Amino acid sequence: MIATQRRNAILSLLAESEHPISASALAQHCGVTRQVIVGDIALLRAGGSNIAATARGYVLTQTGSGLLRRLACRHTAADTAAELNAIVDCGCTVVDVSVEHPVYGEITGALGLSSRYDVEQFVQRMDSAEALPLSSLTEGIHLHTVLCPDEERFSRLRETLAAEGFLFTDKG
Description:
4-stranded antiparallel β-sheet, globular
């Protein structure tokens, strides 16, 4: 398979998949190394493809309908799953998380979490890697980009996060 065909195959696989696909799985499918896939993804991104790298693999970023909003949140690492579940339970997708680092500026991690199963898998990966959430760099303060179907769900999400003490406001 030549490079152009391989990159087209990668885009097709990502477009057809409902779940992230790891670089290793793409490499196996295409008969190349994982590093070749990483390079292909970089070239596809440079060419304008909206591919995000999540902890579970690559996904095409959602361009579907809905409201894309950002929320400021604050909580301990122990409350990560509860916060993420609250978001998906309101029918919204957690697109990413970002923190403001004093040296690097904004650091963003793609998440793409839409269900409790997605949250469970994310938390399990963090636990098995003994990784801390990005918010551990900023005393728990972080931003989430969320995709909500409509304004009503976004309002419900804000109310839910506020009620659970996760929504960060000027009052702390």
